[in-house]
Every structure is written in structure tokens, then in C-alpha cells.
Amino acid sequence: MKTAIVTDSTAYIPKELRDRLNIHMIPLSVIFGGETYQEEVDITASEFYEEVSIQEKLPTTSQPPVGKFVELFEKLSKDYDAVISIHLSSGISGTYQGAVQAGEMVQSIKVYPYDSEISCMIQGFYAIEGAKLAREGKTPDEIVGLLDEMKESVQAYFMVDDLAHLQRGGRLSQAQAIIGSLLQVKPLLHFVDKVIVPFEKIRTKKKALKRVEGILEEAVASGEAYQASIIHANREDEAIEWKSELQEKYPNVEFNVSYFGPVIGTHLGEGSMGMGWARKMSR
Asked: Is 51 contained in some domain?
């Protein structure tokens, strides 16, 4: 059985890697005023942050239309027997449900929608692993079962840097933003039961990142092989520097640097930083 792997743009998998592993991507969109841009297609992350800096209002975001899923699945049915469609958490977006609906509408291929229960490059880990397993000839049920095993070790923590940005987006009152800025509060967030919830409030960015590192240290203490992604919102130099520091300390962890693209960046804001990890699957 030949299985296709689909994910959405919020996995932020580099195009060259998607092409190499034959991962198919369906984009979400950001809307500035009346203009709609498909992320990873019409607008890059750097272009997005530049545009946000000059706009008075924050953009809005939208999930892919169900018809886009149907179109892609029908196209894949010409070359594949099944498709595993891996998406950002159903607790923060209706994208996964769109894949479910489209799978029920398409008769020419068996669709396995998969809720990553997370987003960004940690979601990408599932798609990358799924693509490798598909190449090895694993059946869709086997692939889904192995992805579920990987899910048991997945963790991710994100620091929101710009409280003023959250205030602009209506997710924080002006008074809270002023007080938070004065105290340099850096909220740490994580996913619980598919939604983003506060983990801890920490006074400085340095302490917040140190706290995330401490959680990583506990997770990888067994010495097993792990993969981790440092994720930034227009702070690539800082992310690369952090990666260099961590690589020396944790030789059993393979680190990469990724980013919060337009859709996720709309909600977290520029300057946000995070890290997520998962146990590597044995082969």
C-alpha cells in the first residue's frame, strides 16, 4: 500500500525538506485588511513580521477551505492508496476537522486525519516521521500507531515576549500589558488537552528560557536519543545562539532551529521563543 503524507503550513517544514520527503502541504492564511496571503506560499515569515510592524491593526487568520482538502486528496488518489493528513491541534484551529470532513467526502482514497495536538515544527516532527515510515512501506495503521507512540514523549513550551502585541490583539487588557511590561513578565505557555494554557509567569526572558532548558534536561536525562526544535518569532540570531549552547550540554539531543510563521506569529507576537522535543523513534 502506498501512503501519502499531508500536513498544513503551520508545521513550518522547509520546502526543500518537504520536497525531499514528498510531504504535501496545505496552507493556512493571514488576512491584512482585504488582502489574503497563504503562508509559506504568498508570504514568508520575515515578510509577515515586516508587514505587521507597519500595520495599525493585527491581521486575522483563516484555515484552509474544505474544498482545498478535497482537491488535494483527489489529486493524491491517482498515485496513492491512502493519505495520512497531519494537522495542528484541533483545540486551536478547525483545520483538522476540515481534513476529517474532506476525508468523508472523497471516495477515491482512504484518508487518515491525524491531530498532532500541537503546532509548529513539533507538528512537523510527526509529518517528517510519517513520511519516513511511509517510505519504509509501513501501512497507514502502523504509521498512526508509531506516531501515537512518539506523542507520549512530546513536550513544548513557548515564551511570549511582547505583551503589547497581545494587548493589540485583544487578548490582554491595556493595564495588564503596562504592568506586565514594567515587571518584565514573560508568560510561559504549553499545550494541555489540545489547547494553549499558561504554564508559569517568569520575570525575565533569560529566566524563562532557562526554565524551558531545565524541563528539557529532565526529559532527556535517560540518555535516550531525542530531537528538539528551537522556535523563534523573528529572532533567528538568538535562536541559533541558544542552539549552540544547548548542543554542547545535551549530546543525545539533535537540535534544529525553526520559526513561528505568519499564522502562529499573529497570535504569539514577534520576539516569542519556544522549544519542543520528542524521543527519536528507533529503527
From this structure: no
CA distances from residue 260 to 107, 118, 135, 234, 246 in whole angstroms, order as listed: 35, 13, 28, 8, 20
From first CA to last CA, the distance across the chain in angstroms is 20
In DSSP terms, which residues pair with 37 in a beta bridge?
A: 30
Q: Is the pTM for the entire model greater than 0.85?
A: yes
Residue 147 sits in the same domain as residue 234 = no
Q: Do both 120 and 15 map to the same domain?
A: yes
List beta partners, residue 60: 31
Closest CA to 200 of 186, 215, 210, 179: 186
Q: CB count, 10 Å around CB of 23?
A: 22
Amino acid at 2: K
pLDDT grade for 167, boundaries at 50, 70 and 90? low
Residue 119 C-alpha cell reads as 503546532
CA dist 219 → 214, 231, 259 (Å): 9, 18, 22
Domain span at residue 72 reads 3-28+63-151
Contacts of 193 (CB under 8 A, 6+ apart): 91
Of 103, 133, 151, which marks where a domain is finished?
Answer: 151
